[in-house]
Amino acid sequence: MKLYNTYTNKIEELKPLKEGVITIYYCGPTVYNYIHIGNARPIIFFDTLKKYLEHRGYKVIMASNFTDINEKILNQAKKENITEEECANKYIKAYLEDVRFLGADDSFIKPKVSETINEIMEFVNKLVEKGAAYVSGEDVYYRVSSNPKYGMLSNRKIDELIQGARVEVREEKESGLDFALWKGFHEGITYRSKWGEGRPGWHTECCVMINKIFGGMIDIHGGGTDLIFPHHENEIAQNESLYNNRIANYWVHNARVNFGSEKMSKSIGNVIWVKDLKCDPRAYRLLVLSFPYRNIINYTEELQNQFDTEFLRIKQAYQKLFLHLDVNNLFDDKAKSNISDEIMNKFDQANENDLNTPNGITAINEAIKLINQELRQNKDSQILSSLYNVLTEMLHIYGLDIKLEKMSSENRLIYEEWNNARIRKDFEVADKLRKLLVERNILI
Ligand SMILES: [Zn+2]
Fold this sequence. Notes:
Blueprint: E1 2-5, E2 10-13, E3 21-26, H1 40-55, E4 59-64, H2 71-80, H3 84-101, H4 117-130, E5 133-136, E6 139-142, H5 158-165, E7 179-184, E8 191-193, E9 196-200, H6 202-214, E10 218-224, H7 228-243, E11 248-254, E12 257-259, E13 262-263, H8 281-289, E14 297-299, H9 301-327, H10 338-352, H11 357-376, H12 381-397, H13 409-423, H14 427-439
Parallel strand pairs: 3-4, 3-10, 10-11, 12-14
Antiparallel strand pairs: 1-2, 5-6, 6-7, 7-9, 8-9, 12-13
This protein binds zinc ion.
């Protein structure tokens, strides 16, 4: 598989550190609020990448953190009149609900800052001992000038950066570019360190968590493009200073989602929370995956409507096929055909190429077209059964699973009654039976 590596600015062949295994880490949320549909994009992207790699036979180990110690959480907790811990837990729970709502696997490893404090202190201490960081009052700062490689990820020159940062030089820092690894802090949750009472800086947690979980370098580190600078640049700098590596071989970033053509932002208020999405979450996921992940999406209601219709079309074809196979007892998970192989090849090729999901969706649409055709015309059971198998697999990889139940004999009777009621145009009875069948997951 090929992926665009922000670090090298190239599309590169993905070569895992350990054969057959891919390790992934992407930066998770600071848990002080709900997430909006733009925050959902990395969840959707990395979940899809994971499922695709699993489909190719890799074992994927994925981690994503919760920043549960942060001033924003303290401020929000005050507003809601709850403790910081309660606030963090509330939004962690909400986040994981959103993850599942978006059709993403929630079984990734979930480190928290509050559970990594000792390791963070140790890490910062080692940086100080190496001369890559310095203590200033109760704070500890990373000394950017100690690292000639600084700026590699974001393609910035260190001299220019230092020049640019001069305006914000404050007394406690040697350079405006230096960033806090530890901050003296005396309110809410604090930790006792050798530098005084305080809290860890944001940029350190991810490096420490990765080293703690994976014991060294990983394959893929990701997040939204807004994290490239300074967050990921600073992560790499610290890790280079201490371990002489760039944390991950591949740095992979997804573009953002705009609201219309404007940047979506919690502070401006032009956001749609994931929990408030009116549409089927799979229709939103389909929308997101219909754009290359490195392109900005300008989200509008009209665009969503278009994908609601698209997803409905997929659902209807899938249901028609499912019922046909079920009623005629034609399910066969080993069924193969040239047509279905061709579709799966197209789908794989699209994903091999920097996870080109728009082309993957084209393959799904081709399968839908063929299914409708085959159901109208030949009804070849081998072809239909094999198309069902590949469509189910493709939908699963893209997190668009459509879950239907095979009919028990009781449900089969209800299904037949429903069909009969429709034939004799008894809409009242048909409607009642339809509702029952939907309740039982026989119909959508
Ligand atoms: Zn991070």
